[in-house]
UniProtKB/TrEMBL annotation:
Keyword Transmembrane: yes
Principal subcellular localisation of the protein: membrane
Compartment(s) where it occurs, according to its Swiss-Prot or TrEMBL record: Cell membrane
Family designation: Belongs to the ThrE exporter (TC 2.A.79) family.
Official protein name in the record: Threonine/serine exporter-like N-terminal domain-containing protein
GO molecular-function terms, A-Z: transmembrane transporter activity
InterPro entries on file: ThrE-like_N, ThrE_Dicarb/AminoAcid_Exp
Membrane topology note: Multi-pass membrane protein
Length: 267
């Protein structure tokens, strides 16, 4: 294998890992994918270290006339949840390992996966997020009024977060705005219908922001022995939960100061 192809193979493997890590994959899965891709092209030595914010990979081929270890570092600055892309990269890696796919074709396929568009906003945010929040409201004991109230609040929160994510707004501030919006909408809707329970609507609306995947991956990485990644993901989950609480708490406190925490119907 030439030095150029060796570098190109490692770059391709790192690109696959980057797509997975940016879209919610576990640390062990990213490491395993990069190692499998490299070893399928006769790399004798492959060492990969992945954290939620970066990928470090070194590789070399035994017996190569240019016996030099190639090392690359990839910084991950943004993360989200798109398990469809993770599944697509998994399928690609199996296809690449089981065939003699050219590197140019492999890179082209990865670029196609990376450019996959998510669901339209009216489906993802307004419908998906709204229904998620609405059914969580029922799960927490809400009535039909809380169901529709949580649907409206969660839809608006999901739409807001979707727009903020496209502008690369800081995640901490995004979640504060999301929590504040959920609380504001719950209070506003309770003025329209006195049968709406503010607490249940807020709970249902903020469930679309709860870092479930981050918590799950933190536990999974810690069990697998990836303590740095586990602690990092756990810290990320705590920060997200704290920012949501700050947003909700600010609006509720403001409501208490201005209106005593009472509905207009009772004033």
């Amino acid at each position: 294998m030439s030095s150029f192809n060796r570098k190109k193979t490692l770059i391709m493997a790192l690109y696959a890992g980057e797509i997975m890590l940016k879209n919610g994959a576990e640390t062990y899965r990213v490491e395993d994918t990069i190692i499998r891709l490299c070893k399928s092209r006769n790399f004798h030595y492959v060492e990969v270290y992945v954290t939620p914010t970066g990928i470090f990979a070194s590789a070399d081929t035994k017996g190569d006339s240019q016996d030099e270890i190639v090392t690359y570092i990839k910084r991950i600055k943004s993360r989200g949840i798109n398990l469809n892309k993770v599944a697509e990269v998994n399928s690609f890696s199996r296809q690449f390992v089981e065939s003699d796919m050219p590197l140019d074709e492999a890179l082209s396929k990865l670029k196609e996966i990376d450019s996959l568009k998510p669901y339209p906003k009216h489906v993802d945010a307004l419908l998906g997020g709204g229904l998620s929040g609405a059914f969580f409201a029922l799960l927490f004991g809400g009535n039909i009024h809380a169901f529709f109230g949580a649907f409206i609040a969660a839809s608006i929160v999901s739409y807001l977060l979707s727009n903020l994510a496209q502008t690369e707004f800081p995640p901490f501030l995004s979640n504060i705005f999301g929590g504040a919006t959920a609380a504001f909408m719950a209070i506003a809707l309770s003025y329209i219908s006195p049968l709406i329970n503010v607490d249940i609507v807020i709970t249902g609306a903020i469930m679309v922001m709860v870092p479930g995947v981050a918590i799950t991956n933190a536990v999974r990485d810690s069990i697998a022995g990836d303590l740095v990644s586990g602690l990092a993901r756990a810290a990320e989950a705590v920060i997200i939960a704290t920012s949501i609480a700050v947003g909700v708490g600010f609006v509720l406190k403001l409501w208490q100061i201005l209106l005593g925490g009472h509905l207009l119907w009772n004033i």
